[in-house]
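Re: the 97-residue chain
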Amino acid sequence: MGPTVRLDLTTILEATGELQHFLDLGAARLRVEGPLPEEASEALIFSMADELEDHLRTMRGRQGSASIRDLRVWTRAWIDKRQEALEQRPLQGGDRG
């Protein structure tokens, strides 16, 4: 059994320069979902963080290790994929724009 390392997602996002992109994605996702209670908004953001963490863990497992560059590429690809999916969805309760 290989070593298990707990990912510190905030540190990874800061080190890779992707923190603002992740926050922007979270804000966009909240806009698409429409008005949510605070607890639901927090749950949505935490679920995104969990998804990204799982993605990074899977990618690292496939490769066996991960450099900061790898983490940046994997994180950016994950964010871009989610952003594209959001752009395909209509806003809840109104028109886009």
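The chain has four helices and no strands.
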